[in-house]
Amino acid sequence: MALTQHNLGTVVAFEFVRTIKKKGFVIATLAIPVLLIVVFALVYASNASSKASADAQKSAQFSFAYTDASGIILSPGAKAAGGTYSDNPEAAIAAVKDGSSEAYFQFPADPTKEPVKVYGADKGVFENGKYEAVAKQLLEASAQYAVGSPRLTAALTGKVQFDSETFKDDKVAAGVGGVIPPMLFLVVFYISMILLSNQMLNSTLEEKENRVTEMILTTLNPTTLITGKIISLFMVGLVQILVFLAPVGLAYLFFRDRLALPDMDLSSLVFEPGPMITGALLLVGGFTVFTGVLVAIGAIMPTAKEAGTIFGPLMAMMFIPFYTFSLVISNPNALIVQVFTYFPLTAPVTALLRNAFGTLNPVEAAIVIVELLVVGSLIIRLAVHLFRYGSIEYGRKLSIAGTFRRSELTAK
Amino acid sequence: MTLGDAAEPLVHIEDFRMDFGDTTVIRDLSFDVHAGETFGFLGSNGSGKTTTLRALLGIYQPTAGTLHIDGKVFEPRDGARLGYLPEERGLYKKEPVLDVMVYFGRLKGLSKNAARSWSENYLERVGIPEKAKTRLDKLSGGQQQKVQLGVTIMNNPELLILDEPTKGFDPVNRRLLMDIIEEHKRAGATVIMVTHQMEEVERLCDRVILLKDGVARAYGTVEEVQEEFGGTLYRVTYEGVLPESDLYDVISAGDGRAELAPRQGASEEKVLRELVETGAGIRSFTPARISLDEIFIKVYGEQHELAEG
């Protein structure tokens, strides 16, 4: 037992250190934060110039002509904004065309039925928006004056904030703030699988391709080897996630305003114990299932290239549930959602989604968790078995049935 | 684990059978290897030697029979004092030499410092100390073999199982390997060696087993096996034509030289008289022991004859 633990630690340390020391790993891991830093720097610079540009536009004045068939527009307001009333639309349009006038606004008799026509001298895609903005502002200000109440104008134009509260089991329901925390388990699942799946696939192939299996199998229990590899890969994944998140965290803490990052109100997040525990267990179960399958593929296939042919369809299983995203949320009892909830390769994503949106009841959650852990453990045992009997089939694809026929035989 | 009880064989194989699908590759194989002896495991390619070793080490599950090391089925946790050099060689090729050696040393129960120290001393001994931090795949084939051998003999194994140890070695490295095997033998290690180099077997091995088509065709000390296959032969030089006789078989003949294996009941005196009386023009007649090489050819020659027949 002591030697097994010692060997597990030795395998974990060896696999972890050699993975993070690889040039390819260092480059791939550092590339993303470097890319993020470059993007942030560009955004920072762009925002600075945009702000200067916006400030300049605010202070910029332009003259325009307008006609008003509706009678809504107040001439003092229009005059203050740089407007001049015109009674000849054709002449006003012609003036814009020949450049003698910057803009012309044609307010129709009924703005609810006909569009306000805006003509302007071309100042570029971004700056041209100022014409419409001024016309709209002029119309709103005049309408507000006519109504005589800013509150009524706001109500009429829909510029009102709503604060909703819903109740569940006599308590205020968490809403989106309750969806986000358990949804993080799905994010972690995706990130870990995307980052680690290829390494999982190759981890046992390496012993096979390097013909090192026999040396290993006489010094190390295959279960210890594969457990050690999985633990080290998980640690590698954590290192990658930390490296990736570091620039995001630093940017959010120190440069949020300059980078125009959204101001997240973390106090609105609700960490309900049920969905959080369920999410964590589904994550562990899903990770177990996919890890087992990937290691098993590595044990069967003779080379990484051939393993890649199975790898693609397997990864697709992680994304297929998103095709039924709306059903997963709105109609969890639909047949397809039920199938995806219980089929081991689609269950992790489907169940994590349903758990986050609150459509996975406790009984379903318990069944899926037990299923994933049991199936995952069986697959890992199968993977160990295939590694043990398959990895010395150097250069040959393994017959799974063949390994069982062989292992059914006893040494007694 | 301390291997070997003088009263019991260190390796005990009894009625071992191995089937792959419908094909039986080993049938009813039984033999023992005693602690401290060097045991030669002989046979042509495909005769079942590697399969037997893999089954003994738990890499294959045997179809039937008993395969014990030190009285029990081998498990990896017993591997700390085992040195196994498999036929299919390989280590983690993209890792530095020292890292790989220390890793295997740790798996065999050595502390990190002890594994490092042992590895550095070994690399010094085999003349590649400067390669300690070099990736394995940057080493020459011979240098890789040295590292592989180092990993095999780490922690002074009490049982060394070497599957074609000289495969891929040049003569200089082969000499080094043989020296190392002899050192371990002198230190009391038990050595099981699969090889096609019969002169090495005659020099190193106390006992041998010769396998053909998964069946033991000879088993015992080198002398016993030589005796079983005729024991003595006669090397003669002659002029003219070598006559055929019921008293001997001609093993080889040409350029005035021949090796004759006496048949049952044919004494040295009778054979010599026969040669002289038939006027073969005998110039010299030297009794000698049949070599393992000749026994090997004799056993596998039958196979070729059968195949041709």
What would you note in describing this structure?
With 412 residues, chain A is mostly helical. Chain A has two domains: 97 residues, D-Maltodextrin-Binding Protein, domain 2 (3-Layer(aba) Sandwich), CATH 3.40.190; 239 residues, no CATH class. In chain A, 68% of the residues lie in helices and 5% in strands. Chain A has a four-stranded mixed β-sheet, sandwiched between helices. A two-stranded antiparallel sheet of chain A has the order 5-6. The two termini of chain A are 24 Å apart. The C terminus of chain A is likely disordered. The longest helix of chain B has 17 residues. In chain B, the strands form three sheets. In chain B, strands 5-6-7-3-8-9 form a six-stranded mixed β-sheet, sandwiched between helices. Chain B has a four-stranded antiparallel β-sheet with strand order 11-12-10-13, covered by helices on one side. Chain B starts with 10 loop residues before the first strand and ends with a helix. In chain B, helix 2 packs across helix 3. Chain B is built from nine helices and 13 strands. In chain B, a hairpin with a 2-residue loop joins strand 11 and strand 12. Chain B has 309 residues and is an alpha/beta fold. Chain B folds into two domains: 215 residues, P-loop containing nucleotide triphosphate hydrolases (Rossmann fold, 3-Layer(aba) Sandwich); 58 residues, no CATH class. The chains are: A mainly alpha (412), B alpha/beta (309). At the A-B interface, helix 1, helix 8 and helix 16 of A face strand 4 and helix 2 of B.
